[in-house]
């Protein structure tokens, strides 16, 4: 069962994902590694979204600023 599950996982992965998990013997280890990787990615996205939401809520244009200055605040890092 473990070999079959591991083979299915490995066949379904992209090359980048494959290189992260191909060293594991257990399908559970593969699965847990992928889960942690994507959990962190989602957490980083949520943190970035929270930061941008905060910046938007605190947005206030000063007299000496133009619209481009304001738009520059929201450019990706």
Walk me through this protein's architecture.
With 77 residues, this protein is mainly α. The longest helix is centred in the middle third of the chain and has 31 residues, at 27-57. Helix 1 (2-12) crosses helix 3. Helix content is 73%, strand content 0%.
Shape: rod-shaped
Q: What's the story with the biggest beta sheet? A: none
Order of helices and strands: HHHH
Query: Distance N terminus to C terminus?
Result: 44 Å
Q: pLDDT under 50 segments (min length 5)?
A: none
Mean pLDDT: 83
Number of domains: 1
Q: What is the gist of this entry?
A:
With 77 residues, this protein is mainly α.
Secondary-structure blueprint:
Blueprint (H helix, E strand, L loop, with lengths): L1 H11 L2 H7 L5 H31 L9 H7 L4
Helix pairs in contact: 1-3
């Amino acid at each position: 069962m473990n070999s079959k599950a591991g083979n299915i996982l490995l066949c379904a992965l992209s090359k980048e994902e494959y290189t992260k998990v191909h060293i594991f013997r257990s399908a559970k280890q593969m699965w847990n590694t992928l889960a942690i990787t994507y959990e962190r990615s989602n957490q980083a996205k949520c943190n970035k979204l929270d930061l941008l939401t905060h910046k938007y809520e605190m947005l206030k244009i000063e007299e000496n600023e133009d619209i481009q200055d304001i738009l520059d605040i929201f450019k990706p890092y």
